[in-house]
């Protein structure tokens, strides 16, 4: 997945290394996700038959990349390459992550809903009262629902913006931060599984809320059952704690904070996403807080790791370090 050593041939110029938006650390994390998913699946006799086949996507991206390498070294070419491999990395990582998330839930650790509910009480938050308040305000629910459903776009948005702006180093940091947050979320959610507050509420008592992003309780219970399992249903967000929606709601504007207009727009949209995560995703408030903290942790760690990678790469090439990582790097 890491293409740091690929080179572009530029007539009349020395061959220069082409820096990939995917760092070595990010590549390692994706392979770790794949390994966790395969090992857990084999150990628990589990098959997730509904995973999408991305072979054609991989072939297509590589083919396009081969074609554009014939073009002269221009900014638009570099932007396209960053977009291609950044997007491909996100798709592969998400597919591996879904497999790992579902397979690790087969470990069937005790559900921790009571602990998460107690944490909400300690914070002075009543999930049922909040959900009923949103249910009585159709306009608020609509805004929350729309914002909540932007998660896929927001995951891809930093790659698009940073590629167009030629901020390759920031793209590397973002992709690594995404991978760190994704891996840690999957592991923590397997160790601290939960069904979510909607499992203990009467859905019929709500008029407009449908909790479309809630943890698929039927999937969770089937995964926790003993014996072989072949699941051919389309997978959903199986993680309750921490909330990955909350992580994305913070990580995306954090990665794009130097782009003022986009950043300000994201603040409004993602404030609604955080509010909707509690209702649309049927998450505890503690899930949202944990997901928010996860974003800051992952981004700070990614900055440090990318800086170390750049130093190591510069030493191997006997070149001065010239990292453009966003401060503090």
Specify the number of helices. Answer: 12
Q: What percent strand?
A: under 5%
Unreliable stretches: 1-16
Largest sheet: 2 strands, antiparallel
Structural class: mainly alpha
What portion of residues is helical? Answer: 55-70%
Shape: globular
**Nearest-angstrom radius of gyration?**
21 Å
Number of domains: 1
The number of E-state strands comes to 4
In the sheet with the most strands, the strands line up as 1-2
Distance between the termini: 24 Å
What string gives the helices and strands in order? EEHEHHHHHHHHEHHH
Mean pLDDT: 88
Topology (SSEs and partners):
Elements: E1 7-8, E2 16-17, H1 24-44, E3 46-48, H2 55-68, H3 75-104, H4 113-122, H5 127-135, H6 138-148, H7 151-164, H8 168-191, H9 217-224, E4 229-231, H10 244-255, H11 260-279, H12 285-317
Parallel strand pairs: 3-4
Antiparallel strand pairs: 1-2
Helix pairs in contact: 1-3, 1-8, 2-3, 3-7, 3-8, 6-11, 7-8, 7-10, 8-10, 8-12, 10-11, 10-12
Report on this structure:
This protein is 63% helix and 3% strand. It is mainly alpha-helical and 329 residues long. It has one domain (7-317). The strands form two sheets. A two-stranded antiparallel ribbon has the order 1-2. A two-stranded parallel ribbon has the order 3-4. Helix 8 (168-191) crosses helix 12 and helix 10 (244-255) packs across helix 12. It is globular, with a radius of gyration of 21 Å.
Features:
329 residues, mainly alpha, two-stranded antiparallel sheet, two-stranded parallel sheet, disordered N terminus
């Amino acid at each position: 997945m890491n293409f740091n050593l690929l080179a572009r041939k530029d007539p009349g110029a020395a061959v220069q290394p082409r820096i990939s938006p995917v760092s070595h650390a990010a590549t390692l994390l994706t392979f770790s996700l794949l390994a966790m998913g395969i090992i857990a699946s084999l150990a628990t006799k589990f098959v997730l038959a509904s995973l999408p086949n991305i072979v054609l996507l991989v072939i297509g991206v590589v083919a396009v990349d081969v074609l554009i390498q014939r073009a002269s070294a221009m900014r638009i070419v570099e932007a396209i390459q960053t977009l291609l491999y950044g997007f491909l990395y996100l798709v592969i990582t998400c597919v591996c992550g879904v497999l790992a998330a579902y397979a690790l839930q087969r470990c069937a650790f005790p559900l921790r809903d009571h602990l998460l509910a107690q944490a909400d009480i300690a914070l002075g938050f009543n999930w049922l009262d909040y959900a009923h308040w949103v249910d009585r305000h159709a306009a608020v629910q609509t805004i929350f629902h729309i914002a909540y459903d932007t998660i896929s776009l927001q995951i891809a948005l930093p790659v698009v913006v940073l590629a167009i702006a030629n901020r390759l180093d920031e793209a590397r940091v973002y992709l690594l931060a995404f991978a760190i947050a994704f891996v840690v979320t999957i592991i923590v959610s397997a160790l601290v599984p939960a069904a979510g507050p909607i499992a203990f509420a009467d859905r019929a008592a709500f008029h407009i809320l449908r909790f479309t992003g809630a943890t698929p309780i039927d999937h969770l219970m089937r995964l926790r059952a003993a014996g072989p399992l072949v699941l051919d249903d389309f997978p959903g967000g199986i993680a309750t704690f921490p909330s990955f929606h909350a992580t994305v709601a913070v990580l995306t504007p954090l990665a794009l904070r130097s782009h003022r207009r986009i950043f300000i727009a994201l603040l409004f949209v993602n404030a609604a996403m955080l509010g909707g995560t509690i209702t649309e995703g049927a998450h505890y408030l503690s899930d949202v807080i944990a997901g928010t903290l996860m974003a800051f942790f992952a981004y700070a760690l990614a900055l440090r790791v990318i800086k170390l990678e750049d130093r190591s790469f510069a030493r191997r090439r006997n070149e001065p370090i010239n990292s453009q990582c966003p401060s503090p790097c």
